[in-house]
């Protein structure tokens, strides 16, 4: 499996100082290709305040002239190698296991970040309370704990737009089939939405997160 550098703690954005994080559930935000940790962190003010929110920066730099950072390559043959998604999810897991002590952890990712979030859930089904997948997909190919995931069926919200022309149709079709077989799926397809997050989708995500807080309590 491809190896990545560890996540950079100095590049992470937190919703509160260390003294305010103890005993609170953690919501980790994973940005998309060509963005950075500030992209999704702008949503933190619209999410339930009971969570500690941490936005992390992906470890790779896309080829010039793409801006920002990426979780795995999307160029050429490398884009079809699922081990890159697994490597990114493993790097995320390593940081969570060694650097956080939250009583519960949820993941919220957009596009590439959403793919990494689902892959991390598959690598460690017992570690995550839930996943929010915005304009992302489930990576094709089996993983050793997929059967365990299907038994646990953790909550997953999947939101996507009808006009999203970034995620290839075959990946959307695979995700439509794969998610209901492995998780407790909820979500919505938003008419006219492109590869982005709408106000209605953000409202739906907040409702989903509030329900997860009720379960955690």
From TrEMBL:
Q: Which UniProt keywords apply?
A: Hydrolase
Kindly name one Pfam family recorded for this protein. Answer: Abhydrolase_2
Domain of life (superkingdom): Bacteria
Looking at the record, the residues that make up the Phospholipase/carboxylesterase/thioesterase domain are 21-211
Tell me if Chaperone is a UniProt keyword of this record.
no
Q: Where is the signal peptide?
A: none
Task: Give GO terms: molecular function aspect only.
Answer: hydrolase activity
Q: Which SUPFAM superfamilies match?
A: alpha/beta-Hydrolases (SSF53474)
Family per UniProt?
Belongs to the AB hydrolase superfamily. AB hydrolase 2 family.
Q: What is this protein called?
A: Esterase
| Taxonomic source organism | Microbacterium ulmi
């Amino acid at each position: 499996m491809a190896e990545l550098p560890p996540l950079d703690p100095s590049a992470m954005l937190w919703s509160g100082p260390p003294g305010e994080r103890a005993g609170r559930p953690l919501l980790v935000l994973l940005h998309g290709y060509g963005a950075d940790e500030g992209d999704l962190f702008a949503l933190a003010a619209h999410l339930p305040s009971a969570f500690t929110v941490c936005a992390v920066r992906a470890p790779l730099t896309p080829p010039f002239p793409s801006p920002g950072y990426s979780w795995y390559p999307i160029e050429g043959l490398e884009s079809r190698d699922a081990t890159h998604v697994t490597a990114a999810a493993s790097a995320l897991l390593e940081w969570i296991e060694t650097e956080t002590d939250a009583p519960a952890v949820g993941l919220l990712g957009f596009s590439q970040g959403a793919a990494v979030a689902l892959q991390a859930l598959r690598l460690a089904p017992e570690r995550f309370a839930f996943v929010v997948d915005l304009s992302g997909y489930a990576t094709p190919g089996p993983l050793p704990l997929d059967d365990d995931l299907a038994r646990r069926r953790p909550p997953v919200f999947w939101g996507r737009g009808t006009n999203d022309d970034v995620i290839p149709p075959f990946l959307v079709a695979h995700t439509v089939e794969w998610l209901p077989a492995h998780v407790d799926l909820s979500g919505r397809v938003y008419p006219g939405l492109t590869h982005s997050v709408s106000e209605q989708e953000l409202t739906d995500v907040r409702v989903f997160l509030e329900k997860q807080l009720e379960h955690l309590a």
